[in-house]
Design a protein that fits this description.
Elements lengths: L3 E2 L10 E15 L2 H13 L4 H25 L3 E12 L4 E13 L1
Parallel strand pairs: 1-3
Antiparallel strand pairs: 2-4, 3-4
Length: 107
Amino acid sequence: MSIILTTTNAIEGRPVQQYLGIVAGEVILGVNVFKDIAAGFRNIVGGRSGKYEEELRKGRDGALAEMLQYAQQLGADAVLGIKLDYETVGGGQMLMITASGTAVKLA
């Protein structure tokens, strides 16, 4: 069974039958000194930092996967109103990525 993940508060043509609760997933990424050096160099010469972008994608995917796992445990058909948050923790040495939304059963 595939669970629908969406940032919207409703799914057209599929009314919510039951609200199961808030589900969330968190990932904390440590900052690698070599990536920092490469990113700093990239900032000097311009352009994008592919390594940071790759790490952010992995972190986002991990947070969404963890949230999805909790939704599956609740028997959800969808997770509505998904929000992604990015925050530094540990004095800026780590990046926390959080995905949260409302798990629901659809009619």
